[in-house]
Amino acid sequence: TVEFDIEMVKGFRNILLGGEGLFLTTLRGPGRVWLQTMPTSNLAKAVAPYLVTTSS
Predict the structure, then answer these.
(1) What is the pTM of this model?
(2) What is the 3 state secondary structure string of 2-53?
(3) Which candidate in 13, 14, 35, 40 could, as Cys together with 18 as Cys, close a disulfide (CB 3.0–4.6 Å)?
């Protein structure tokens, strides 16, 4: 099981100029982590052709 912590980035300059968001995530422990960097809608379009569908 992977444990995680999310904390807010400190520092006014980091918030304005960081460009990476306002939060930092730390992951710990054994396990598998999958990362995706595209919007959820694009991810769904990319995965959709591989999903099994039922015919009616």
Answers:
(1) 0.43
(2) CEEEEEECCCHHHHHHCCCCCEEEEEECCCCCCCCCCCHHHHHHHHHHHCCC
(3) 14
